[in-house]
Amino acid sequence: MRAAMLAERIKAARRHDLLLAALTGLLTALCAAVRPEEDWQRAVGYSALTVNLSLMNAVVMPLAMAALASRLWDMETRGSGCRLLFTLQSWESLFGAKALRGLVQNVVICLAEGAVFLLAGRMWGYTQALEIPRVLWLMLCTFVVNAMRFFALLALSVRSGTQVLPLAVGLACSLLSVFTAFMPERLTLLTPWAYDVPLSAMRMHYDRETRITAYEPLAFPAGLLAAAVVCGVLGYVLARRAVRDQEV
Amino acid sequence: MDNIIETENLTKRYGGVPVVRSVSLAVPQGSVYGFIGPNGAGKSTTMKMLLGLVKQSGGSVRLLGREMNAENRLALLRQTGSLIESPSSYGHLTARENLRIVAQLKGVEETEIERVLRVVHLDQEKARRVKAFSLGMRQRLGIAQALLGRPRLLILDEPTNGLDPEGIREMRDLIRSLPQTAGATVLVSSHLLSEMELFVDYVGIIDHGRLLWQGPLARLQAERGGEVVVTRRSKTLEEIFLDLIHEQGEEAAE
Predict the structure, then answer these.
(1) Of B180, B179, B107, B169, which is closest to residue B139 (Cα–Cα)?
(2) Which residues touch A117 (CB under 8 Å, ≥6 apart)?
(3) Could you tell me the pTM of the whole model?
(4) From CA B235, how far away is CA B110, in angstroms rounded?
(5) pLDDT, tens digit, for every residue of B74-84?
(6) Helix (H, G, I), strand (E, B) or coil at A241
(7) Average pLDDT for residues A229-245, to the nearest whole number?
(8) Are the C-beta atoms of residues B122 and A118 closer than 8 Å to each other?
(9) What is the ipTM, given to two decimal places?
């Protein structure tokens, strides 16, 4: 497995995958961050960032994960890599190395988003106390939901042998995710690729008269996170089988 | 002479349709064995089965004196180099980086890379990205990948495909020299029969998935070479091959 990981690292040369992952996380979170103009906005800065970021993740990450998964596999498709690799390593080690590489990039995305919480508070002077457990929860949920999206799209990428299909599916999921924020809560459970929103554990209430948004922290939905983990495991199995069934 | 590859009744069926039928190959150690047949004869499928890339429907494979199975397959293939159909490479990487991947997976010292680059005359191009390579250069890189780790056996499927005449000549010289320079046995397939007879010393002729004949090229020419009446020259391998296929067709019709 070590040799497979090192080989994967050589393959990643000049592709700047980790940098792109960090930029994706940073830009997504910075777009979600509130630049407060009034005191009440400073007082709910982190809560607002939590809600906005979960929605941004639901919209941006399906496409980002499609790009990540298809870039990782596309190099094998273009270069007929499997024909050579399967004479040098087991399909399990190839899949394992790809999976680990994808998960490392996912970790980088989550860390970059977590860093924005610290950054935004200092830059824009949020007066709200930063609740570290909530930030860690959000990072964990983002990681799990991203892993689910990554494996499902990796499976699609391997099966289709093209970048177009996973990117199209990623784009479609991104567009559908826009509506999940406005769906009844139960309906959002049917859209696992957009679980970021119900997993955020933060509810938003907008008062039309005062034009003030209030945020209500909720208990961490551990059951929903478990459901996301199950979906992620399913995606993992699908992707693993897709690599196993690769015709060379 | 010991056989480095032996198959017994190797068979492959796709959806019930046989594409390789009871092929029993015997490739002697130290030889350049030409596996010849028209397109679609079953050469590539047979070679893929030798490498375990395609699961056989029946029969067995002995490689380097050992029966190949799921447990020992990768260990046996570490002593084998292969180039199947078209070379596998990563266009965004340089030739050297491509070889580093193979060296890493084969557990070969990276100093080997310089040696194989020299063997295939790519040492001046090692820092260039492969996407800028011509097809001939990619084929040579594929051979270099196969040569890493000083394998005892090389399995090369149509290595001259898509090459210009100069490239074909270079590849021919390289393959012919491998038993001496690398101590390797070479199993090479092609449908270019006139080309093959210039550098192989054993042949196996396959058509419609059946092995029609195998043995030393000299014996094939002695047994079946005869003479072409008009020009009074010996028959070429291509002519012998066409005779064999014709006979096979007549037998099948009867």
Answers:
(1) B169
(2) A29, A46, A49, A130, A135
(3) 0.90
(4) 47
(5) 999 999 999 99
(6) helix
(7) 97
(8) no
(9) 0.88
Burial tier of B69 (Cβ tally within 10 Å: 0-12, 13-18, 19+): exposed
Using a CB-CB distance cutoff of 8 angstroms, which residues of chain B are in contact with residue A101?
none
Three-state DSSP class for residue B239: helix
**Distance between CA atoms of residues A67 and A173, nearest Å:** 13
- Residue B9 backbone dihedrals phi, psi, to 5 degrees: 45, 45
Residue B136: name the closest of B118, B157, B161 by CA: B161
pLDDT of residue B235: 76
A77, pLDDT greater than 70:
yes
Least CA distance to B149: which residue of chain A? A88
Tell me phi and psi for residue B39, to 5 degrees. -60, 135
Q: Which residues of chain B have pLDDT under 70?
A: 1, 225-233, 252-254
Q: Whole-number mean pLDDT of chain A? A: 94
Which of B159, B162, B213 lies closest to B187 in space, CA to CA? B159
Please tell me which of the candidates B51, B54, B88 has its beta carbon nearest to residue A80.
B88
Contact B92 A86 (CB under 8 A): no
Spatial CB neighbours of B54, under 8 Å, sequence gap ≥ 6: A248, B12, B45, B48
List Cα–Cα distances, A174 to A20, A60, A166, A181, B220, in angstroms.
19, 6, 12, 12, 65
Dump pLDDT digits (tens) for B78-128: 999 999 988 899 999 999 999 999 999 999 998 999 999 998 889 999 999
Supply the pLDDT for residue A186.
Answer: 83
Any CB–CB contact under 8 A between A6 and chain B? Answer: yes
Please tell me the distance from the alpha carbon of residue B50 to that of residue B46, in angstroms, as a whole number: 6
| Contacting residues of A for B104, CB less than 8 Å apart | 3, 6-7, 10
